Amino acid sequence: MDQRPTTKRSAAAPTGRFITFEGGEGAGKSTQVKRLAERLRAAGAEVVTTREPGGSPGAEEIRDLLVHGEAARWDPVTETLLHFAARRDHLTKTVWPALERQAWVVCDRFADSTRAYQGAGQGGDAVLIEDLYRQVVGAFAPCMTFILDLPVETGLARAAARNEGGERYEGMDRTFHERLRQGFLEIARREPQRCRVIDATAAEDAVAAAVWSALAEHRQAVS
Question: Which end of the chain is more exposed for a tag (fewer CB within 10 A), N or C?
Answer without folding.
Answer: N
